[in-house]
Amino acid sequence: MNLSEISNVIEQGKDQYLEHLFTLLRQKSISAQNIGIGDCAELLKSMMKDIGINTRLIETDGHPVVYGEIIKDHDAFTLLIYGHYDVQPPDPLDEWLSPPFEPTIRNGKIFCRGAGDNKGQLMAQVLAIKTYLDTFGELPINIKMVFEGEEESASVNLASFVEKNKDLLKADLVYTSDGPMHDSGAPYVLLGVRGMLYVELTAKGADWENHSGNKGNIVPNPAWKLIDLLRTMRDENGRVLIEGFYDDIRKPTEKEKEIIKQLPFDREQVAEKIGYKQLDMTGEEYYHKLTMEPTFNIAGFTSGYGGEGPKTIIPSQATLKMDMRLVVDQDPNNIYKKFCAHVEKHAPDIEVKHLGDMKPSRTPADQKVVDVVTGAVSKSFDQEPILQPSLGGSLPDYIWTKILGLPSVVVPYANFDEANHSPNENIGVDNFINGIKCTCHVIHKLGEYSKQR
Questions:
Q1: pLDDT of 452
Q2: How many CB atoms lie within 10 A of CB 306?
Q3: What CA–CA distance (Å, rounded) separates 360 from 357?
Q4: Tens digits of per-residue pLDDT, 64-102?
Q5: Residue 394's pLDDT is what?
């Protein structure tokens, strides 16, 4: 089999492939608001069936999973591909340059909600199956596909779905395409993700707002309660002071340390792309902080008056939202208990609410199958990929590594400036097409690898 034929087939079918993607993008699927989810699941199932993938919807306690498979031989190497068909809400609408659910090509990019996250990357996987079948007639390995409809709502039912379907989902490797490529434009091979804990703190003062002069020094300000609590949680160097916060963090291996040292880093370029020109750290510091250290972030602080001009009031309530990105082997439930204990000790009248969590995950870099995927990505892009121990963000990767006990790799196809979750989300046309090609190469190389096992 000659993989050069793959590129010809993709080039000939490019317009058709784009139309497949546009059809899926036009179908709304906002999980947080339950808009269009069922219709999108049915549409995706139909598209996969048309390609020759045995596909069905599997119900969960929330939105359905679209499950597809092509089984060559039950004893053959099995690749499980994961993605999600749900998207974020498009707000704020007035910042979109074109309608958020009408795919529009500008300057070589496809603009639409879900273009990069994750419908563009998902369709690259699906269309790679079509391309490989059209080119060679059959697959060299088994393929299973799990596309969920709740990733943008913290994948609340994916773990239970996997627990109930362990036999159905038996595989040798999990492959995900989500998130952006490296800021240099080079392809990534990511071996894990950080986890997350999201909490909300609410402090209350009087039953209603009061005049800041007439009742100043009399009525307590709940915003100050939160600020005083925050001062007990973090020192001036950014170290978290919650007891036991750092206890369970797995130290990086020597190989992981070496990988981090070799990662490319252009400080000025990164500073420009993130909009923070004061960035001042080495590449090793940057990647260690991004992949091996937890965060303690204030995502939002709301209290009192925020409109134009002055309004002299003492607010009656203050709300703080926080997210903590966690690293292997921190447990979100354990960190939440420690967080609550700290609040109880320092500010027992402040209410803590758990808004969501996800466990961290990491696949060892020394597994042979990691080398196989890395080689396939390199061959596809004609460029050595950047191997990174972990993604800075969070995906439900732990479900594959912890519940199924499988190695898992993430190979993003979207451009670095995909603006996922933001207005004018996009994916480069070339990124989408190259994603199809890359998946074909991964399937092919895994087929060769399976013969040697």
A1: 86
A2: 7
A3: 10
A4: 999 999 999 989 999 999 999 999 999 999 999 999 999
A5: 87
Please tell me the distance from the alpha carbon of residue 436 to that of residue 122, in angstroms, as a whole number.
10
Q: Which two tokens stand for residue 411?
A: 């190979």
d(CA 325, CA 138): 42
Q: What are the mean pLDDT values of the chain's consecutive 10-residue runs (453 residues total)? A: 86 97 98 97 98 98 98 94 97 97 98 98 98 96 98 92 98 96 91 95 97 95 98 96 97 93 91 92 95 96 96 97 96 98 98 94 95 97 94 90 97 95 97 98 96 83
Tokens of residue 378, six digits: 């390199």
Tokens 């009061």 found at: 210
Task: Judge residue 94's burial from the number of C-beta atoms within 10 Å of its C-beta, 0-12 exposed, 13-18 middle, 19 or more buried.
Answer: exposed
Assess contact for 113 and 87: CB atoms under 8 A.
yes
Q: Which ranges constitute the DSSP H helices of 263-349?
A: 267-274, 283-291, 332-346
**How far are the Cα atoms of 113, 123, 190, 298 from residue 249, in angstroms, in the given order?**
36, 36, 19, 21
> What is the per-residue pLDDT for 1?
60
* Cα–Cα distance list, 270 to 192, 307, 419 (Å): 22, 34, 15
Q: At CA 197, angle to CA 194 and CA 200, rounded to 5?
A: 150
Residue 148 near residue 63, CB atoms below 8 Å: yes
* pLDDT for res 81: 98
Q: How far apart are CA 111 and CA 425, in angstroms?
A: 6
The tokens of 422 are what?
């933001």
The string of DSSP letters for 387-453 reads EES-BSS--TTHIIIIIS---EEE---B-TT--TTSTT-EEEHHHHHHHHHHHHHHHHHHHHHHHH-
User: 272: helix, coil or strand?
Assistant: helix
β-strands 78-84, 142-148 pairing: parallel
Two structure tokens written together for 2: 């000659």
